[in-house]
UniProtKB/TrEMBL annotation:
SUPFAM superfamilies assigned to the protein according to its UniProt record, in alphabetical order: DNA-glycosylase (SSF48150), TATA-box binding protein-like (SSF55945)
Entry GO CC: cytoplasm; protein-DNA complex
UniProt protein name: DNA-3-methyladenine glycosylase II
Protein's UniProt keywords contain Transmembrane helix: no
Keywords: DNA damage, DNA repair, Hydrolase
Gene source species: Pseudomonas flexibilis
Domain DNA-3-methyladenine glycosylase AlkA N-terminal as annotated: residue spans: 6-123
Length: 296
């Protein structure tokens, strides 16, 4: 990897690599991603371009080092944009902290872990797949099933680094047309996954947030098998939508900040109104508090 071009992507501190390391460790797809204590690498597909990229933190310079495979250089500008979003490098942590400073629930969490970011998937379609697979199961179970999808359908990466990712995540077309029997999901969830993949493949579902996260949530909820939690989670984790808030999420409802028994969804939705326009960061802090147990 040392012969590949190197870029430095700056950010405003604080920014904690360990937050991202924990996030990826819980969700890692070994064929598609590799992770160690000081870096992350994954395969990529952007249009007709395939390849890989690798990042490692450079805390002494408040930047993230990005290496891009020669095969992916044609997409380097778009790739930089995606990596910046993936690692939330454009956030202003002081503005977010100031917004939450008067909130009795969030202010102590921000003081305890200043500058938490919003880890976002590299590819929104991949995140949508993960969200559907993850309905009503643990993160660990969802990763196991998603790994089966990669093993069954993922194409070998042409210029795979020796110790890096070896496969590409399946395309919408591949998933839509695959035989997913015995993959380990209920038939209705398989149908929901393949309906989503077919809609993305034929263009009837526009998977973007250019017209706002609420519009994306509405489009997703119109598909069979996708409810508000899944749609909001895709907006949050797939696009880094800063005000997305999956208010029915168990980790948010059971976060220890609420005390024994947690809080109900209606009360959480009411409280969350005060956190706009940064509700996704509120979710990150609530999950972080919940999550040394970790299913966020």
């Amino acid at each position: 990897m040392n012969s590949t071009p190197v870029l430095h992507l700056p950010f405003l501190p604080p920014w904690d690599w360990q937050q991202f390391q924990r996030h990826f460790a819980l969700r890692l797809l070994p064929g598609v991603e590799t992770l160690d204590a000081n870096g992350y690498c994954r395969s990529l597909r952007m249009g007709s371009v395939t390849g890989w990229f690798a990042v490692r933190p450079l805390p002494e310079t408040n930047s993230l080092e990005l290496r891009i495979s020669p095969s992916a250089l044609a997409a380097s500008a778009a790739l930089v944009t995606r990596v910046r979003r993936m690692f939330d490098l454009d956030a202003d942590p002081q503005a977010i902290a100031t917004h939450f400073a008067g909130d009795a629930v969030l202010a102590p969490l921000v003081a305890r872990a200043p500058g938490l970011r919003l880890p976002t998937a590299f590819d929104p379609f991949e995140q949508a797949v993960r969200a559907i697979v993850g309905q009503q199961v643990t993160v660990k179970a969802a990763v196991t099933i998603t790994n089966r999808l990669v093993a069954r359908l993922g194409e070998p990466l042409a210029d795979a680094p020796a110790s890096g990712p070896q496969r590409l995540f399946p395309t919408p077309e591949q998933l839509a047309n695959a035989d997913l029997s015995a993959i380990g999901m209920p038939a209705k969830r398989v149908a929901a996954l393949q309906h989503l993949a077919a809609a993305v493949a034929d263009g009837s579902l526009e998977l973007h947030v250019e017209d706002g996260a609420d519009a994306l949530v509405e489009r997703l909820c119109a598909l069979p098998g996708i409810g508000p939690w899944t749609a909001e989670y895709i907006a949050l984790r797939g696009f880094g939508a800063v005000d997305a808030f999956p208010g029915a999420d168990l980790g948010l409802l059971k976060s220890p900040v609420w005390g024994p028994g947690g809080v109900n969804a209606r009360e959480l939705k009411r409280r969350a109104e005060a956190w706009r326009p940064w509700r996704a960061y509120a979710a990150i802090y609530l999950w972080e508090r919940y999550g040394a147990a970790g299913d966020d």
